[in-house]
Task: structure prediction
Amino acid sequence: MTDDFRPGQVREVTAVSNPVIKEIRALALKKNREESGRFLAEGLKLVTDALDGGWVVHVVVFAKKMSSNAAVQAVAARARAQGALILEASEKVLSTISRRDNPQMVVGVFGQRWLKPEAIRAQDGDLWIALDRVRDPGNLGTIIRTADCAGAKGIILVGETTDPWSIEAVRATMGSLFHMPVARMGVEAFLQWRKGWPGMVVGTHLEGAVDYRGVDYSGKPVLLLMGNEQQGLPPALAESCDRLCLIPMAGQADSLNLAVATGVMVFEIRRHALVMKGASS
Ligand code: SAM
Result:
């Protein structure tokens, strides 16, 4: 980041050529996100969720016309207290950041957080979700949100996947990214790590041998493995599963959307965990 990225200041920005704004816009590219370890969260809700979750904030940009809004002032004050740079910008400037005609009135630049594989601790009743080469940022964001709704403990990205820190993926998580740990592993590393998994590994496959409703998911931790959107699970990953489940379908479609299939699975797994606990929600 340039020297213009000095913390603790409040600046007014009207020019889209402002160097800080240019650096924020550069976060649209994965390469720049990786190099800086930063990403963009758009909207008051997401920025507030990230601050609530203790995520490190570097910059907050808000629309000048929102400068007297109490919630925006509170966000700016919290970010400033962390030493973040606070920018008051014209709507034109904000629209170049989010590349939308109807831009969000608040955006924040945060530090990425990856969970280290060795930090994954699974206990009885826990659910973790591993995604093989997930390609679509909307699918990934929706899965992170769904995992949060179902009480999953975290997500493991396997192989070359879409970036969870892209603006599209972050948007689709609706803030759940800030509560859901995300780890990443290559395929070989995953196969190795999986050997130490203390519970059941459940894969989903169009040629799955078991109806997903016929499996008992209660007790031990469950690792749910979902296949790539185009190719499904490759043989090496499919063979690493204790169970390969099929979600029976009617109609003409050849498969469910990845995020929908994940939703079906996680709520079935959650139902078993709740039956074990004798709970009703
Ligand atoms: N053409 C791909 C294939 O042959 O597997 C379709 C992949 S599907 C869009 C993405 C993933 O969602 C699959 O790899 C699987 O994990 C899951 N999935 C989708 N529909 C499923 C079903 N009916 N039963 C089990 N898993 C399913």
Summary: Residues 1-6 have pLDDT under 50 and may be disordered. Residues 10 and 109 are 15 Å apart (CA to CA). The pocket of S-adenosylmethionine is lined by residues 204-206, 208, 226-227, 229-230, 232-233, 246-247, 249, 255-256, 258, 261 (CB under 6 Å).
